[in-house]
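Revision sheet: structure tokens.
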Amino acid sequence: MLRGTWNKGPSSSSLRLEDVIMEHLYIPAYKLTSIDQDELFYLRNMQEGITELRSLARRRRFATTTA
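Predicted:
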């Protein structure tokens, strides 16, 4: 729903209704309602990956010392 890039440079001489609605309605509503949950979801998933990598490193280190 949210666009990653916006062309607001000098080449865009006229504003489109879609851009105005996105900037003044959707984005502020998203920031008020969902951005915290999205950030928490991202951070939890990153933490799971980090935990798994650390676990893998511990297992690999143990396997090389006992072999």
